[in-house]
Amino acid sequence: MIRGILFDLAGVLHIGDELCPGAVPALARVRKAGLLVRFVTNTTRKSQAQLIARLHGLGLGIDATEVFTAPLAARAYCRAKNLHPYLLIHPDLKPDLIGLEATTPNSVLVADAGEGFSYANLNTAFRVLMRGGPLIAVAKNRYFRDGEALSLDAGPFVVALEYACEVEAKLIGKPARDFFLTAVQDIGLAAANVVMIGDDVESDVCGAADAGLAGILVGTGKYRDGDETKLPENAHLAADIDQAVEMVLEGKLAHR
Amino acid sequence: MIRGILFDLAGVLHIGDELCPGAVPALARVRKAGLLVRFVTNTTRKSQAQLIARLHGLGLGIDATEVFTAPLAARAYCRAKNLHPYLLIHPDLKPDLIGLEATTPNSVLVADAGEGFSYANLNTAFRVLMRGGPLIAVAKNRYFRDGEALSLDAGPFVVALEYACEVEAKLIGKPARDFFLTAVQDIGLAAANVVMIGDDVESDVCGAADAGLAGILVGTGKYRDGDETKLPENAHLAADIDQAVEMVLEGKLAHR
Question: pTM for the full model?
Answer without folding.
Answer: 0.88
